[in-house]
Amino acid sequence: MIRRYDFAPLDGITKAVYRRVWQQYFGGADRCFIPYFSPTKEHLITKRERAELLPENNPDTVLVPQVMTNRAPELVWAAETARSYGYGELNLNAGCPSGTITAKGKGAGLLANPDALDALLDGACGKACIPLSVKARIGYADPDEFPRLLEIFNRYPLASLTLHVRVRSDKYSGPLYCDAFAYALRESRNPVSYNGDLRTVEEVAAFAERFPDADAVMIGRGAIADPALFRKLRGGPPASRDELRAFTSALFDAYTAFYDGQTGHAAQRMREVWFYLIHLFDDARRLNKAMRRFRTATEYRAIEAEIFAALPLRTDSAGDLI
Ligand SMILES: Cc1cc2nc3c(=O)[nH]c(=O)nc-3n(C[C@H](O)[C@H](O)[C@H](O)COP(=O)(O)O)c2cc1C
User: Fold this and answer.
1) How many C-beta atoms surround the C-beta of residue 117 within 10 A?
2) Full-prediction pTM beyond 0.90?
3) Hey, what CATH topology would domain 34-196 get?
4) Whole-angstrom Cα distance, residue 294 to residue 9?
5) pLDDT > 70 in the chain, percent
6) Is the beta carbon of 35 within 6 A of some atom in ligand 1?
7) Does residue 197 have its Cβ closer than 6 Å to ligand 1?
8) Substitution candidate for ligand 1 out of 10, 98, 276 with most atoms within 8 A of CB
9) Which residue minimizes the CA distance to atom 30 of ligand 1?
10) What are the residues whose beta carbons fall under 8 Å from the beta carbon of 215, sequence distance 6 or more?
11) Whose CA is closest to atom 6 on ligand 1?
12) DSSP conformational letter for 314
């Protein structure tokens, strides 16, 4: 039985503004992961990163902050910083596929060098003041790398090991290596959590049937595409048209306030949300194209109004979330 539902970190989308408004309208996740912050060697993080971590910007939600680093001193410092904000766990990003990040040996780049990964965890796990968890892929270039990686994770007491069951080069599409997850369920000494392409209650139920020993899943794009997904997983109703209209309107207003009244910036953020949310509507081809191309906030508002006025609302999202 799935006992825990985590909302995945989606940099550029599930930041404090989105989390706050989403929690107010839908909610239903046990925990939300904060997209990563990146400490410098001087142990500095940006003002924006600090604001993301501030508990007052994140009310009514259980949160797990995430760090991107390949150096033990920064990982230990990040844990202290997270604790100073009241958090009880810090997640290490070992999955980001971006070339600029992996080239520095960070994110999924950590998986390309298992000895460095081992040294990082060895240098930080005994010293970090709060438990560490890891969000990783099952390999850098090949799923056959996974047993060696799991052997390393097994050397350390992690709060959890969340696995996006793809290799780095496949980014967020391409084959899901579910056999690697089955292997992790059997062989991991740490609690494991599944991540990858879950979009509907039916898909989560099929997953739970296939992996009856799995008790935690993390969902990202599926929950942006269907903001009521976590609520539905708990037996609640699907999102209604009025609810979605009120949600997107409140989100746009919250982004506008965040950007000091610059509606153009707010509309750009909404474009990222609609990239996934459009999958909750049928016959969306033309308006999806328009949503990807608008130039002004006025254009954005007109396209959104037409979506709500004209398109049939689905009870589940459909299509590939890419
Ligand atoms: C736009 C975008 C931003 C992401 N940002 C992060 C991030 O900051 N940290 C992280 O660990 N994963 C990040 N991810 C990966 C997601 O957390 C998740 O692993 C991925 O979307 C697959 O899960 P899903 O199929 O449920 O969406 C990001 C993915 C996308 C598409």
Assistant:
1) 23
2) yes
3) TIM Barrel (3.20.20)
4) 26
5) 100
6) yes
7) yes
8) 10
9) 10
10) 1, 2, 3, 4, 191
11) 10
12) P
* pLDDT tens column, 201-217: 999 999 999 999 998 99
Matching residue, tokens 């929690």: 23
Query: Look-up: residue for tokens 């099929």?
Result: 206
57-80 confidence digits (pLDDT tens): 988 889 999 999 999 999 999 999
Give the helix, strand, coil percentages of the chain, each rounded to 5: 50, 15, 40
Amino acid at 24: Q
Residue boundaries of the structural domains of the chain: 34-196, 241-310
Q: How many angstroms separate the alpha carbon of residue 309 from the centre of ligand 1?
A: 31
Q: Give the pLDDT confidence score for residue 190 in this predicted structure.
A: 98
Which of 63, 91, 221 best tests ligand 1's pocket when mutated (most atoms within 8 Å of CB)?
A: 221
CA nearest neighbour of 222 among 210, 241, 204: 204
Amino acid at position 74, single letter: E
End-to-end CA distance of the chain: 29
Nearby residues of 69 by Cβ (< 8 Å), 6 or more positions away = 38, 39, 75, 78, 92, 106
Ligand 1 centre and the CA of 298: distance in Å?
30
In this prediction, residue 319 carries a pLDDT of 76
* Dist CA 133 CA 160 (whole Å): 5
pLDDT tens-digit series, residues 100-135: 999 999 999 999 999 999 999 999 999 999 999 999
Asked if residue 91 has pLDDT above 90, the reply is: yes
CB contact burial 13-52 (16+ within 10 A = b; e otherwise): bbbbbbbbbbbebbbbbeebbbbbbbbeeeeebeeebeeb
